[in-house]
Amino acid sequence: MQDSKSTPSLFSTVPTAPPDAILGLNTQHRSDTFTKKVNLGVGAYRTAEGEPYVLPVVRRVEQALAKDPSTTHEYLPQDGLKHFCDLSAKLILGADSPAFTNDRTVTVQALSGTGALRVGFTFVARFLSEETAVYIPKPSWSNHKNVVVQSGLPPTKEYRYFDYGTGAVDLEGMIEDLRAAPAGSVVLLHGCAHNPTGADPTKDQWEHILQVVQEGKLVPFFDNAYQGFASGSLEEDAWSVRRFVKAGIDMLVGQSYAKNMGLYGERVGALTVISSEGGNGEAIRSQLKAIIRAMYSNPPKHGAMVAASILGDGDMFAEWEGELRKMADRIRDMREKLRAALIKNGTPGNWDHIVKQIGMFSFTGLTAAQVEFMKNKYHIYMTSNGRISMAGLTNYTVEYVADAMKDAVVSLKKGVLHNM
Ligand SMILES: Cc1ncc(COP(=O)(O)O)c(C=O)c1O
């Protein structure tokens, strides 16, 4: 028998993976012992005191479930809790959606928004083609490209999205790039609260994008990680998805309850496949179930039961809407306060974009060098593209952050936005 000590492990040459652009920041922040450190990296809501937040309505449902002797820990089917899926589809598409006629929608439970994308792109690779080109906005959430490739598709292509001059959507660039995409390509669209730029198309611009998608026979895949967080209204934030559904095209829709119900770690989400023609729902569902079976067998139950209880009860739903408005308002308040603090301390540049952008993030325009400077000198953490989570700011930290931004801008000059 060979001495195991003299045989190198088969795994000894496994290289270290590059740290995740966003989650790596949490690790760095956690191990930082500086008392005034600030984490503006990860997109998780924090209270005015900077603490994680469990929505009171979520807490009540959890307590009721814990006391209910009829709840069990039995497995869910591969496609998850049916009641939850039905209510999720209604939430994003609207109860009277034309997609609910003729068996045109199939909704399965997913491991939050990421899981919806992962199952959805695997479905695309298997049933459109492994060669399908996927276009994501430039810039986009840093995990999109990883999920697409891990799903068996070619590396993502990008379409122009953000105008660094105006701080708004670069509609002309976007249209030009989408026009050049081959028929059958998938276009990933952020349904609202674009991450990281906080710049969404106007309704007129969405009409334009829809027209190009239809003419080019592209397949939209909507990623909705922030329904209710952009405007504070669940309805308003679903407008883009519903408009595309009305056009009667084939499309996919991912949903997440991480941010809007604060169920981050419970991994609660849904994927809906919408067909332009009905009649093949059962086959589509069977294939989604087969993908899920081999990936993780079936989704977790607890979070889906919590979400379904709230979605299915009029009073609790109304309470949730109120909570969402409060969270969106606090984020908007922080935008105003950060801009005011930057004006007050005389930071060079125009900071109007901070209040114009919507959703959880502000794309500040700080360069990677300025971001690094703020981390090293002030222990303020944000992604290297200058994106900050507005929900990570509080009344106590906003001036400290504004002063650090001033120092970074004055010391290192020139931001990536042209007005800086
Ligand atoms: C644009 C976008 N899509 C998807 C997600 C996925 O989030 P989760 O998997 O936690 O629902 C996020 C989270 O930050 C996001 O910003």
From TrEMBL:
This protein's record includes keyword Amino-acid biosynthesis: no
Catalyzed reaction equations: L-aspartate + 2-oxoglutarate = oxaloacetate + L-glutamate
Keyword vocabulary terms for this entry: Aminotransferase, Coiled coil, Pyridoxal phosphate, Transferase
Coiled-coil features, chain-numbered ranges: 317-344
InterPro entries associated with the record: Aminotransferase_I/II_large, Asp_trans, NHTrfase_class1_PyrdxlP-BS, PyrdxlP-dep_Trfase, PyrdxlP-dep_Trfase_major, PyrdxlP-dep_Trfase_small
A Gene Ontology biological process term: amino acid metabolic process
Top-level class of the enzyme under EC nomenclature: transferase
Cited Gene3D superfamilies: Aspartate Aminotransferase, domain 1 (3.90.1150.10), Type I PLP-dependent aspartate aminotransferase-like (Major domain) (3.40.640.10)
Cofactor annotation: pyridoxal 5'-phosphate
Enzyme Commission number(s): 2.6.1.1
Keyword Translocase annotated: no
Further facts: In eukaryotes there are cytoplasmic, mitochondrial and chloroplastic isozymes.
UniProt similarity note: Belongs to the class-I pyridoxal-phosphate-dependent aminotransferase family.
Record's protein name: Aspartate aminotransferase
Taxonomic source organism: Eucheuma denticulatum
Gene name of the encoded protein: ast
